[in-house]
Amino acid sequence: MRTRAVLTDEDIVKMADAAIAHAHTNQWAVTIAVVDEGAHLLWLRRLDGAAPATAEMATSKARTAALGRRESKLYEDVIRQGRTAFLSAPLTAMLEGGVPIVVGGDVIGAIGVSGVKSDQDAAVARAGIAALGIA
């Protein structure tokens, strides 16, 4: 039987603190969402100044990354390159900003961020994941 990593409360707090710090350093008003491997919401925070809609977008980006087992940007790129059939995929936020959390080749969750430019959203998510010290 194979074992796999799971997100702990401590992991979530560590990632959240790092993501918030990155957003604050850059003065970005964003919402940050963390989901588990099944795309269930574990943590959500809308920073001061972030638009209300960003709460849904961040959560949806995280869910897309967790369920799709890849960054949500991949879907955005595929659609942009003309494969519009992907718009019918059962994922709700195929925009950059959702990043899976991968440990030992397994996706154990994802972080989604919304509120600034897409690459900046992804940078906040990656800063959170980097706090876990996983490659």
TrEMBL record:
Against Pfam families, the record matches this protein to: HbpS-like
Q: Where is the signal peptide?
A: none
Q: Which domain of life is it from?
A: Bacteria
For this entry, the protein name equals Heme-binding protein
Give the organism, scientific name.
Paraburkholderia denitrificans
